[in-house]
Design goal:
10 helices, Rossmann fold, single chain, 265 residues, four-stranded antiparallel sheet
Length: 265
């Protein structure tokens, strides 16, 4: 089934089949993570695991440390305490070269999309391939570009400029640019922010398609509960910089806790 068939099936049935969690060795393991800015504690002893092949959603109100968490994971911010292990490698002990090599295993979809406005879609997709694979041929690049564009349903956008794309299309191209290097882990930072409900549903469905096709392990930072319901095999809620509750969608939907109920209305 191609992406367009999948999208139409999703719209017609209004259901999304979620991939079952593969409980295996964790690909990311975090223990007692701490991060402060001046005297403000943003993360307080946060511990979590991302398991092989699962979609883990991290939810919470603005200011609870969700985006800080994801930036600490990839080393964009240095934690004040605790440990982060990715593929059993402690991030804070890696050299700059080793950290760069590890980041090649991780796809990071920024909230803004972060496309290069001066480049066509084709050039935006070619860029990470040329940067990470020095000996790749033009034929291989062309084949990979066509593959990822087909997978996000935008083959006809290959020669367009980002300014010619809608917000949802830009987000899909950003995802294509992220998956083109075959990452083992995907980090999504508010993937549906600023999108209308129909487009948000398409992006959520596409996250599941990426999980199945590329066998990724994904951490999804979001405040979008519909995105959470659609994509999450497991959920962690942060409150005041700490893990407040961990469970599956049903655990959250059935919780009598008023804090949880305020999210899952």
């Amino acid at each position: 089934m191609n992406f367009e068939d999948f999208k139409m099936n999703t719209i017609q049935t209004e259901t999304v089949v979620k991939v079952k969690t593969i409980r295996d060795e964790p690909v990311i393991e975090i223990h007692d993570l701490k991060k402060s800015f001046n005297k403000q504690e943003v993360l307080k002893n946060v511990s979590l695991k991302l398991f092989n092949g699962e979609n883990l959603a991290v939810i919470g109100k603005s200011g609870t440390g969700k985006s800080v968490l994801i930036k600490c994971i990839v080393g964009l911010l240095n934690a004040d305490g605790g440990t982060i292990e990715i593929f059993e490698k402690k991030v804070n002990t890696l050299s700059r070269k080793e950290l760069g090599e590890l980041r090649q295993e991780i796809g990071f979809l920024f909230q803004s999309g972060a496309l290069y406005d001066s480049m066509t879609v084709r050039q935006n997709l070619e860029f990470p391939l040329r940067r990470t694979r020095k000996n790749i041929s033009q034929k291989e690049i062309d084949e990979k570009v066509r593959e990822v564009l087909e997978n996000v349903g935008l083959s006809d956008a290959i020669d367009k400029m980002p300014s010619q794309l809608s917000g949802g299309m830009r987000k899909r191209i950003s995802l294509a640019r992220t998956i083109i290097v075959d990452p083992r882990i995907m980090l999504y930072d508010e993937p549906t922010t600023g999108l209308d409900p129909a487009t948000s549903n398409e992006i959520s469905s596409l996250i599941n398609e990426v999980q199945k096709k590329y066998k990724t392990s994904s951490l999804i930072i979001t405040h979008d509960i519909e995105c959470t319901r659609t994509t999450a095999n497991r959920i962690i809620m942060l409150k005041d910089g700490e893990v407040y509750l961990e469970g599956n969608v049903e655990d959250f939907e059935n919780s009598p806790d008023p804090v949880i109920k305020s999210f899952f209305k």
